[in-house]
Amino acid sequence: MVVKIRFLRLGTKRNQVYNIVVANGRSKPTGKPIEILGTFDPRPDLSTSTKHTNLNFERTKYWLGVGAQPTDSAAKLLARAGLIPPKLPTRIPTFTPTFKD
Question: Is Transferase one of the keywords (predicted)?
Answer without folding.
Answer: no
